[in-house]
Amino acid sequence: MTNLPLELQQKHSVLITILNEMGSMLIGYSGGVDSTFLLKSAHDLLGDNVLAVTADSATLTGDELDEAGEVASAIGAAHLAVKTDEFESEDFIANPPERCYYCKKERFSALKDIQAARGFKWVAEGSNADDDNDWRPGTKAVRELGVRSPLKEAGLTKPDIRELSRALGLSTWDKPSAACLASRIPYGERITEDKLNQVAEGERYLKELGFRQLRVRHHGDLAKIEVPADDMQEVIRRADEITTRIKQLGFYFVALDLAGFKSGSMNKVLNK
């Protein structure tokens, strides 16, 4: 780590201090950039005093769950997948702007139960210092339940975490940002498993074509595809085959968002 910028080394040192002070923890683990870096850092320091737990639900694809398990195994960390069912909550299904709060409250409550049963000192999660710049109602649930966010506490941003992950040799260092499938459905539109499956299958198909950073937004009969500006020409070139496949999933119309990919783009309507 000595070849990294001094400021980043200092932030990393703060993180190490925080993790050592925590002593043992159960980590809410998605297999993404942030939670993987947190798991690696904590496991390197604390070994078997760390357990990664992934919520296995309809909002996470099977591919993502498998990848999370594979990465945790490569790190050498213990990994547990726990079934959760957000569809038992009408607050989640109704899809209000606070949807993430209700989801996180259920998930981290389940993790708190596991923590108590297994004797870990803390439950931790992978939010970073950049997450305060977007609408993150799940943060309220994290605070209410006393869940720790070590990366945020250390002041680490997403670029910081990618750089540190690369230095540690983690395969996730350049992994595209992800979000739960429910984030593809506009606020106020009820969430169903069929809608989540349509989104998951559409995104899986586009990834198979070679696109890495993308979203398929569910607007009823319309599927809206978001990719970075550099990928738009390729989507247009393959428009016929893409349109045919996406329509087979149950959509009647397929559109390309000319504004390009933007994580959290559904939150723009909250400014109204």
TrEMBL record:
Molecular function, one GO term: sulfurtransferase activity
The name on file for this protein is TIGR00268 family protein
Source organism of the structure = Candidatus Aquicultor secundus
Q: Which residues form the active site?
A: 180
Which SUPFAM superfamilies does this chain map to? Adenine nucleotide alpha hydrolases-like
